[in-house]
Design brief:
The structure holds two protein chains of two kinds. Chain A is mainly β. Chain A is built from no helices and twelve strands. Chain A has strands spanning 3-5, 10-14, 19-21, 24-26, 31-38, 44-50, 56-58, 64-68, 73-78, 87-95, 103-104, 108-113. In chain A, strands 2, 5, 6, 10, 11 and 12 form a six-stranded mixed β-sheet that branches. Chain A has a four-stranded antiparallel β-sheet with strand order 3-9-8-7, with no helix packed on it. A two-stranded antiparallel ribbon of chain A has the order 1-4. Chain A is globular. By secondary structure, chain B is mainly beta. Chain B is built from no helices and eleven strands. In chain B, strand 4 and strand 5 form a beta hairpin. The chains are: A mainly beta, B mainly beta. The A-B interface holds A 32, 34, 36, 41-46, 49, 51, 90, 94, 99-102, 104-107 and B 4, 33, 42-43, 45, 48, 56, 91, 93, 98-100, 102-108.
């Protein structure tokens, strides 16, 4: 079975500073990896995903994540955060070989400080 | 497309009462998921459907919970009788072809059982 660990439950960061949200996964088979974002009082939204190919994937709002198979990691980064990035971020994993349910991590609360 | 539509947005009910949560998935999506989110347990998958057929209900906490999907455009999650520990935000999500293209979540129903 797959599992996801998000090591930081809360990450405070000043506006315009860089940020990294850590995600590690466990799986005995190939995986697809996702980052979802949840703004206050809203549902989750897909931020970016890794399916295959380039290990570096980007979102339209400046986030990027890098798939590292040897370290079983999929950390999310942004070089300069904005107040509007304040939200809960969820890393998620599913098996790549056949359809299976997506397993979500516990989430990391990103707070951007003005 | 209006996205995944859930109703009601908020529900306050007394212990012992029946509660019905509703979901309209995105047209054309063939998977539908019900999740529950709490501070203590994070995001939990309760049940999911493929082409209106329940595939995995192993996350349904107990017999008080039931879910149906009578057609491709409507699903319900029912709790009878409700208990205070059922208080949570319940999300419906839909997808096409499983997890590869990501899930689209509704805005959730915040259930409070007093």
């Amino acid at each position: 079975a797959q599992s996801v660990t998000q090591l930081d439950s809360q990450v405070p960061v000043f506006e315009e500073a860089p940020v990294e949200l850590r995600c590690n996964y466990s799986s005995s088979v190939s995986v697809y990896l996702f980052w979802y974002v949840q703004y206050p009082n809203q549902g989750l939204q897909l931020l970016l995903k890794y399916l295959s190919g380039s290990t570096l994937v980007e979102s339209i709002n400046g986030f990027e994540a890098e798939f590292n198979k040897s370290q079983t990691s999929f950390h999310l980064r942004k070089p300069s955060v904005h107040i509007s990035d304040t939200a809960e971020y969820f890393c998620a994993v599913t098996k790549a070989t056949s359809y299976d349910k997506v397993i979500f991590g516990p989430g990391t609360s990103l707070s951007v400080i003005p | 497309d209006a996205g995944v539509i859930q109703s009601p947005r908020h529900e306050v009910t007394e212990m012992g009462q029946e509660v019905t949560l509703r979901c309209k998935p995105i047209s054309g999506h063939d998977y539908l998921f019900w999740y529950r989110q709490t501070m203590m347990r994070g995001l939990e998958l309760l049940i999911y459907f493929n082409n209106n057929v329940p595939i995995d209900d192993s996350g349904m906490p107990e017999d008080r919970f039931s879910a149906k999907m009578p057609n491709a455009s409507f699903s319900t999650l029912k709790i009878q009788p409700s208990e205070p520990r059922d208080s949570a935000v319940y999300f419906c999500a839909s997808s096409w072809g499983g997890s590869v293209y990501g899930y689209t979540f509704g805005s959730g129903t915040r259930l409070t059982v007093v």
